Give the backbone structure.
Amino acid sequence: MTPSRKVVTAAEMQSIEQRWFDSGEITLEGMMDKVGRAIADWVLADLGPDAGGKNVLALVGKGNNGGDALVAGKYLLKAGVRASAAVVLSRAGDDPPMDQFVEAGGTVVEVFEASTEHKLSNLCDKSDLILDGVFGFSISRPIEEPISSVFAEAKSSGKRIIAIDLPSGADPDTGEFDPKGLSADVCLSVGLTKLGPAIRFGDPAYGDEMTVLDVGIPSRLSDHIKREVNTTELAHTLLPDRDLTAHKGDFGRALLIAGSNTYVGAASLAAQACVRSGVGLVALATPTSVFQALSGDIPEATYIPLEEDVNGVLPGPAFDQLQQRIPMVDSVLIGVGVGLSYGARELLSRLTSTPHLWDNCTVILDADGLTLASQLSGWWEVFDGHLVITPHPGEMSRLLGISVEEVETDRLTAVQTAAERFNCVAVLKGATTLIASPDGRLRINMMPNHGLARGGTGDVLAGLITGLAAKSDAFDAASLGVSLHSLSAQYARKDLTPYAMTASDLVSHLHMAFRALASKA
């Protein structure tokens, strides 16, 4: 059974667990046993074939998170691991998980008893791995002494720290992390992915691995949740079908309105990515000077040279040309590298105030197009929901009229607000990219890669989504495009290092990303 990749808040997880208990299918004790066994199995696999004889230290709190750590310790002891428990927060007198741990031969240290306080450093030093079972969902105030000293001791040991559900000090819903908390190397998410760690994945507090432990929670209990991880397994299901007898028209027609004499490369990158998306036909509408520079570089594309002068594109003639072509295509990208000239702004103003022009296509708005749109009122209404926006935090701040800091502090609210306000699919780019639809669905792409932090990578993503949107639902096209973009970046990073990889390398590695997704059948 593959664990669900639905993403839940703390309250939703507690409700799901309670409904499971109420069904009579499982008890709290039974679930804790499942969780503890799953944690132990993961730890044993991580320690390797010589796990027997190694040392594991569990930092134990007073709640169910601590109970999970103790049950895991019991199963580790039965497998030959030397397990110890350091009780950080005093537990209730009637404590079956603790009793079972002791009966299995575990060593228990009450951290704040004067006679045993010095033992914590010894236990940390001797351990091969530390389990964090202190707070879980229960943290409600800043971490203070003496608990902060315990966490500092664990961190200074240099041992791998494995968080049960989420690191102690992390908010389960926002992902904000107390600087005095216990950052993790790995997060073991129990049953379902938790929202806070998911949207903050890539932050040092959460380490570089998040694994969902399958504890048998019935899928019916989370079917109503509209949030999910944008996994490669999901992306595989979103790949468009391709009939062996199809012709190029069956795979859609894409139009890119992109480029200016300053940003020739942006138009090129977007067009190359679009060509590689699987779309049947690609047309690039770009100023004449850009056409002259690029026409031989992308032979698969056709071109629509737009009239220009020294100040940029001429909006009147350009609009007349585009008005004839837009009804003939399935998707249109607007904004990549168009610049912020008066002509570009006026052209966008005309395009966004012409009824019925967009009735039969999906529009992707990116880069300069987003900045120009933020200067217009009601610009989104003409698209009637057939719209994808792909802002970075700076562009999102301009669209919403808030600061970049406000966007970054609450990325989830920002992307959901944009999706609802502009009746669109909103893709908020970042280490963890968020994809929101106006009906409340959310996909979280958890593939951070600092090799993408360079010019042109967003142009590649915009072109890729445009090609996919020619024959796919906008939300699915955006989700698949983000997944392919991330996979391509992983391959480029592996081949070239994050220092040397470029936006062009994303295009050249796209075939590997498609192959990886197709092979998941």
Notes: The longest helix spans residues 474-500. The radius of gyration is 26 Å. The domain at 7-224 is CATH 3.40.50.10260 (Rossmann fold). The chain is about 40% helix and 15% strand.
